[in-house]
Write a structure and sequence with these properties.
By secondary structure, the protein is an all-beta fold. The protein has 2 domains: 2-172 and 442-449, Tricorn protease N-terminal domain (Neuraminidase), CATH 2.120.10; 175-439, 6 Propeller (Neuraminidase), CATH 2.120.10.30. The chain is 0% helix and 46% strand. It is built from no helices and 38 strands. It has strands spanning 2-5, 13-16, 25-26, 35-40, 46-51, 60-66, 73-80, 103-108, 114-119, 125-130, 145-146, 153-159, 165-172, 175-181, 186-189, 196-201, 207-212, 218-222, 229-230, 237-243, 249-255, 262-267, 274-275, 284-289, 295-300, 313-316, 322-324, 331-336, 342-347, 352-357, 362-368, 376-381, 387-392, 395-400, 406-411, 426-428, 434-439, 442-449. The strands form 10 sheets. The chain has a 4-stranded antiparallel sheet, with no helix packed on it. Strands 8-9-10-11 form a 4-stranded antiparallel sheet, with no helix packed on it. Strand 12 and strand 13 (165-172) form a beta hairpin. It is globular.
Length: 453
């Protein structure tokens, strides 16, 4: 049995295990980034794999990998997020040419008469489309029929071989916001355990912005739950919001809608959002405010081009000018210190945390990950700017700016984190405690039976 093993990292690897159970064995594949198994050929000889560059919301290359060893081969210049073989083997044709919903992950029944897939706006349900036979070429095209609805979402349908039903993943996504309690050493519910992540607080700690999980809608609220205000609406997907120090605006990354990921600004009191800069082919993922709320440090995705390495740019809201921080080539995820003197950033391979001193005009390495598989993620400044709270080498860490002293706050241990868009998010409370979104979702495989005429 072949499957995708995500482990605790949020990144995939292709693995296999005997159908009777046993040791999970990862496949050794010659791909530098995130291979995702999407199908096995009807004869079981080949695996169909999508190889993404760095982010899953952009289509990846399609490869055929021999199941028993051999050289993988790419399927022309095709790029996709998902693909399957048809029962008769590989002639491409539109299946749902006029379908007006987001659809994915379909499969044919064993006899090829029905095509089952998932679709929906903001949620997933199962649909079935009868195939049009050769003798009905002049009849109207059949319409898809919805099979499921309700609180539970259903994903990845797999028709049973006997034709009498199908298997699917039933998913009811839910998160619980938790903070690290230094007294007990455990993570405990925070702000009522709301299903929210990417939380950012105002300077006085009285307000915060966040995105809901899993809808990825942006909200602003007082910490006591009063004066809640929705700032974005679907189908826009909001991520990584930051509240300006003066409390007037929120910058966030907008995803989807057929555009490159880009930064947008929205009033904290609500209203229309606007793009930070004109459209560009660079993926803007993060914005970090200067203390005076007049500039933003802009971070881009880690996908690099030989003719233009990633950098960290500074955007002046008064003049609209964009300038590059000297020496920031190959860096991303900027975080401006509360006093404005420093800019923290990560190396593209997430192996180092660096600090730029605006007074001295130079960078220095503040932390290097331990070992070849170590990584650093989600740096967050403390309110006084004396240290950063981050996730380093699978531990929650406090890192002091003055001398680089490193303290382990707590291990991840059995905390299962909810993963979405950019992996597992880590934040910090106004008091300096690590924040995370614990995964309390329902995620099981269901066998569904149906009556097919």
């Amino acid at each position: 049995m072949y499957f995708n093993d995500f482990g605790n990292s949020g990144f995939s690897r292709v693995a296999h295990v005997a159908a009777s159970g046993g040791e999970v064995v990862p496949l050794s594949l010659p791909f530098p980034h995130q291979p995702l198994l999407v199908d096995v050929s009807p004869d079981g000889a080949d695996l169909l794999v999508v190889v993404f560059d760095t982010v899953w919301f952009e289509p990846g290359e399609l490869w055929v990998v021999p199941a028993v060893g051999g050289t993988p081969r790419r399927l022309g210049d095709l790029r996709a997020n998902y693909a399957v073989w048809s029962p008769d083997g590989g002639r491409p044709r539109p299946v749902l040419p006029d379908w007006d919903r987001s659809a994915c992950c379909g499969r044919w029944t064993a006899d090829g008469s029905l095509f089952v897939f998932e679709a929906g706006a903001g949620r997933a349900d199962l649909w079935v489309l009868p195939e049009r036979g050769r003798l009905s070429a002049f009849l109207p095209a059949p319409e898809p029929v919805q099979l499921t609805e309700g609180a539970m979402q259903f994903l990845a349908p797999l028709p049973a071989r006997d034709g009498r039903g199908l298997f699917a993943v039933g998913w009811k996504p839910q998160g619980e916001l938790v903070r690290h309690d230094p007294a007990s050493g455990h993570f405990v519910p925070y702000l009522g355990g709301m299903s929210a992540h990417e939380v950012d607080f105002s300077r006085d700690g009285q307000w915060f912005v966040y995105t809901t999980y899993p809808e990825a809608t942006l909200w602003r609220s007082r910490v006591d739950g009063r004066d809640r205000r929705q700032l974005t609406v679907p189908p826009l997907v909001a991520s990584l919001p930051r509240l300006s120090p003066d409390g007037a605006q929120v910058v966030f990354a907008a995803l989807g809608q057929g555009q490159h990921p880009h930064l947008r600004l929205v009033p904290a009191t609500g209203g229309s959002s606007r793009a930070l800069t004109p459209p560009t082919d660079r993926n803007q993922l993060e914005g970090s405010w200067s203390p005076d709320s007049r500039r933003l440090a802009v971070g881009y995705s880690t996908e690099q081009r030989a003719d233009r390495p990633i950098t960290i740019d500074l955007f002046d809201l008064d003049t609209g000018r964009l300038s590059t921080v000297p020496g920031s080539e190959g860096l991303f995820s900027p975080r401006w210190s509360p006093d404005g003197r420093f800019l923290a950033a990560l190396s593209a391979d997430t192996s180092r945390l660096l600090l730029h001193d605006f007074d001295l005009g130079r960078w220095r390495v503040l932390l290097s990950a331990a070992g070849p598989n170590g990584h650093v993620a989600w740096p967050n400044w403390s309110a006084d700017g004396r240290h950063l709270v981050l996730f380093a080498d699978q531990t929650f860490t406090r890192l002091w700016v003055a001398d680089g002293r490193r303290e382990t706050i707590g291990a991840r241990a059995n905390l299962q984190l909810a993963s979405y868009i950019f992996g597992n998010w880590i934040g910090v409370t106004p008091e300096g405690s690590p924040l995370a979104l614990r995964n309390v979702s329902v995620n099981e495989i269901f066998a569904l039976r149906w009556a097919v005429p």
